[in-house]
Amino acid sequence: MAEKARIVIVGGGVAGIEVATSLGRGGKAEVVLADRSLSHVWKPMLHTFAAGTARPDRQKVDFFAQARRNGFRFQPGTLIGIDRPARHVRLAVEAAQGRPEADLTYDLLVLAIGSRANDFGTPGVAEHCLTIDDLTEAESFHRQLRRHLLARLDSPEMLEIAIVGGGATGVELAAELKHAINLASDYGSPDLPRRLRLTLIESGPRLLPAFPERVSRAAARTLSDLAVEVRTGAMVTGADASGFTLQDGSRIAAGLKVWAAGVKAPDVLGAVEGLERSRTGQLVVGPDLRTTRDPAIVALGDCASQTDPKTGKPVPATAQAARQQAQHLASHLGRALARGDTVASELPPFHYVEKGAIVSLADFNGWGTLGRYTFGGGRLNGLSARLTHDLLYRQHQIGLYGPLRGTMTWILDDLDHLISPPVSLD
Questions:
Q1: Which pLDDT belongs to residue 101?
Q2: Global pTM value
Q3: Can you tell me the distance from the alpha carbon of 59 to that of 241, in angstroms, rounded to the nearest whole number?
Q4: Where do the FAD/NAD(P)-binding domain residues begin and end (predicted)?
């Protein structure tokens, strides 16, 4: 019997975990998923974990348990290097004693390590700003928020928070923080919302540039009604311990500072020699999702730069695109392996299908645009947009757990909302 192909997937986000689950269930390859965390979360929920309005322990997918149920192996570790000629991946294993690195050999390497906020070299940002690009960072922000909140429950001092970046992450985080502070005021500090000074800073002319202008205007109005100060056309030139400096010389005071602007590939990809990269460090891939200079490496999601051969447009760095790429790769590669083909078999080109976009501002408002392939297109507003935003997450859960366990998880989540505190300060 021929030896099974070795497929190593680095990154357990939306794309990575779906590919590992699907190919593992197929049983035709030896599949290993590596990630620095021990659990997966749905990235569009990170702002709720940061604000404390959702509990990550209820939403995590344990990698070890997922691997056991679906026929793949999980290896904890952070990617630190790739030896392309030898087809080896090097991982740093933080918990290891006497064995600080793990080495994995692959026939096909799938990189799905996401992206990072891009500070564009702005002075002081790396030292003084928080980001929420993954669960570890979201939890770190929540600890800082909790510390600031507890210090002000019995104090007249202002709570000053500033967020840089008026895309979906920044806008949703601003609304979620306002929601969290409103809920926390019931814990014995009713004037806390009035002592919140929350500023959202965007260098461009409007919020949510990826959405229609009507959505941008509506989001700005909603945030303004929530007493969030929105500063558009404001370029940040520096950050320090007490706030931000803008290009016009003005200052925005903030004890808590979040950088949610720009996207770039993780720095580790810059150390991999011989691969073609975009100007933001993403790996350039062809129509079949393989990197242009090494067919043994596939890149998915935010760490990949792909031009759709059908439209000639860049595939966006969104969870929607990452999931479509993952489903395309898992489906066609799974079929090829089932036929007895190798991992080097030619795969059909991937075509991104725009199914719309949704932004949800906590319990306050929400908007969505449906692509022409989704119920013929259209718009969503308010409750319908927020429910659709939640439904996307539930679809992801069902894809990972299967219909029965996915539905049961949904029910248990709803029951948990009835008995758990509305906002966590633990």
A1: 83
A2: 0.89
A3: 33
A4: 6-326
